[in-house]
Amino acid sequence: MAASSMENRVVALISRLHDVQAVKFGDFTLKSGIQSPVYFDLRVMISYPDVMVEVSQLLWEKISTSNFKSICGVPYTALPIATLMSAAHNVPMLIRRKEAKGYGTNKLIEGTFSKGDSCMIVEDVVSSGSSVLETAQSLGASDIVVTEAVVLLNREQGGVEKLEANGIKLHSVFTMTDVLDVLSRAGKMEPDMVIKVTEYIATNKFQPNKEILSVKPKSNNILKYSERAALCSNGLSRRLFTIMEQKKTNLVLSADVTSSKELLQLVDKTGPHVCMVKTHVDILEDFNQDVVDSLTKLAAKHDFLIFEDRKFADIGNTVVHQYSGGLYRISEWADVVNAHAIPGPGVVQGLKKVGAPKGRACLLIAEMSSSGNLATGSYTQDTVKMAEENKDFVIGFICVSKISSNPSFLHMTPGVQLEAGQDSLGQQYLTPSEVIGKRGSDLIIVGRGIYQAQDPANAAKQFQIAGYDAYVTRMAEAMIL
Ligand SMILES: O=c1ccn([C@@H]2O[C@H](COP(=O)(O)O)[C@@H](O)[C@H]2O)c(=O)[nH]1
Prior knowledge:
Radius of gyration: 26 Å
Number of strands: 18
CATH topology of the largest domain: TIM Barrel
Distance between the termini: 45 Å
Bound molecules: the ligand O=c1ccn([C@@H]2O[C@H](COP(=O)(O)O)[C@@H](O)[C@H]2O)c(=O)[nH]1
CATH class of the largest domain: Alpha Beta
CATH superfamily of the largest domain: Aldolase class I
CATH architecture of the largest domain: Alpha-Beta Barrel
Strand content: 15-25%
Oligomer: single chain
Structural class: alpha/beta
Number of helices: 17
């Protein structure tokens, strides 16, 4: 295709987009929150099939020399465009769900792919580049590599630079300057409006170094809980991240009391401050079915998850029975359980066989808080690998620092008090700011610091504030760096 022919087609397309009201001038608020005198509503294209076909062809011509295995349209406007490109050129397409379904395969990316496949992102308009980045991030979480994206209109507001800073080259069919040129020469724009829009572009550019979301984040520290929720394939980790953000708490109560009355009273008082309650059901002197029924009702009342700290550590066949049967029937009421990695992957497979159909999840114990424990070094790393291989069921770790860069994994740390120290049986305590702020964990697990306090509800509130403040500070520091 000769360059001049392409230019003529672009001029004709811009003019046509104006005629079908896909380009509007006035006063608009963009997704980023900033005001704009110009707005592109390319969704109207679906009513003009000839426009859709031309747009998809022009986009394809921009990337025809690039190498990629599949294409993925950013939802929603670019989805039908990507579909046309896929069908016309026999290139497989992927679809990124905004949210996993929460049932069935629970995938965030639909379509067939293999780890390491390259994908070209297709978008209609780029301003700051954040929608392309979010899509690249979701694809990256499934190990799909994104190094290029193609867009119909580059609004010239810093998107190219931001994407470049995140390793993505942006190709565009035309820019905002092209739109002003074409429409003013065609007499379709008043000179005053041309000046207004030109000034607006010059003064409203996103800074590429601020709010950078790296495509495959090296660190979970720069993603909000809600952003991480969107990356989770397991419904329970998604729910937990959401509760954490909504209730502003990363506190897990370790309710290690021995009578069920005490347990239920403690949980009811502290419920507003926690996102999860951890139990050791086998230390209750008077366990019966009513206890778990009441606990489940409290979980609904205060919106928290239940985690039974059973620490399964046997062969798959045995854990199937330990989890589903016996006196406690744990799989009937605990949202989350945990397991040692020492028996090998069979322990996860056994738990998954029982828990996955019920929508449950599991944490692996990758590190421990007690002094002299053996869960260190290559044991910890091998546990992370085991989790990676079972991402649909394993949602994270019991650990004392961040051990995985995968933002969908939860890091949960026990051994937390408001002052560092040690008990007489080897338990080692760190503070919430050390655990969340410095060591990059996500949740603090607190037992005696709360239930042995004079006022457990107030103690829980103090831990809630300390833990959440440490998270907010960590986020703010990561944005500045
Ligand atoms: O490495 C680990 C794993 C689990 N725990 C459990 O957490 C709580 C901690 O209670 P505190 O009273 O806050 O010390 C307890 O239930 C342990 O079984 C842990 O401490 N360390």
